[in-house]
Design goal:
The protein is an alpha/beta fold. 38% of the residues lie in helices and 21% in strands. The model has no long low-confidence stretch (mean pLDDT 95).
Length: 277
């Protein structure tokens, strides 16, 4: 009997850790599946997806630059994908392509369970107003922080994003600011930009970092990301990167597909060792 086929699709894709992550999940849970990486042509995403499912594929993870295209291609969306406007998980249900987004669930799981970061009643600052931030806002708001401020280089983008999520803010005060005008005390600061991968930093005041401020970069690196190093250099003690989020969002997708929740801690530890080497 052939194993069920899954894959991650993106461009480029050779750097992806998803095949290793899902291979470890499959070994751990005893699920019979094969997971590969597919580099789709920049102008050939839809054809690649169609061909994958036509040959019996069961599910796809989607990474840059195709998350919006995956959302647009789907015939049905989960509630969290609908709000995110992007999809990182695809599967078929009775011939209908279904889009889901597990990024926000992965971030929240990593913060709450792997790092014991309290979000309920917390004052949260999130940096960036692109797709990565849009994908995690609804799950963050579900945790009922006291305040969630979206900061961006272009204030109008942050304002638009805050307006888009006002209907799900609930008890949370949801606001927006330009980077250089952010002031106040925050319990959690999340970097949702990719700036630190290029060695850049948002122009933030170091006074935002208090003795107990949790710093979280949604990106990850072999050592500290540029953002996390800046935070450490300015007194932050609790500093985390997004490797746990990567594994947790993958576990969420695995459960959507297979109905089984894998244990993430050993996989995070394995990847941390691999990344460090």
């Amino acid at each position: 009997m052939k194993n069920d086929l899954y894959a991650v699709i993106g461009h480029p894709i050779s750097h992806s850790k998803s095949p290793r992550i899902h291979g470890l999940f499959a070994s751990q849970t005893g699920e019979a599946l094969e997971y590969t990486a597919i580099q789709a042509p920049l102008n050939g995403f839809e054809n690649t997806v169609t061909e994958f499912f036509a040959r019996g594929g069961k599910g796809l993870n989607v990474t840059v630059p195709f998350k919006e295209a995956a959302w647009q291609m789907a015939g049905r969306h989960s509630a969290r994908a609908l709000k995110a406007g992007a999809a990182n998980t695809l599967y078929q249900d009775n011939g209908v392509l279904v889009a889901d987004n597990t990024d926000g669930a992965g971030l929240v799981k990593d913060l709450l369970h792997n790092h014991q970061v309290a979000l309920k009643g917390a004052r949260v600052l999130i940096l960036g107003a692109g797709g990565a931030v849009r994908g995690v806002l609804a799950p963050l708001l579900l945790e009922q922080p006291h305040t969630l401020v979206i900061a961006n280089r272009t204030p109008a983008k942050a304002q638009n994003l805050a307006a888009l999520f006002a209907d799900v803010a609930g008890v949370t005060w949801l606001g927006s600011q330009a980077y250089d005008s952010v002031t106040g005390d925050f319990d959690v600061i999340i970097n949702g930009t990719s700036a630190s991968l290029q060695g850049d930093l948002p122009p933030l005041s170091v006074e935002l970092i208090g003795a107990d401020t949790v710093i979280y970069d949604m990106m990850y690196a072999a050592t500290n990301t540029t953002f996390n190093q800046w935070a450490r250099d300015n007194g932050a003690k609790r500093v985390y990167d997004g490797l746990g989020m990567l594994v947790e969002q993958a576990a969420e997708a695995f459960e959507v597909w297979r109905g089984v929740r894998p244990q993430t801690a050993p996989v995070i530890a394995s990847l941390r060792t691999l990344t460090a080497n």
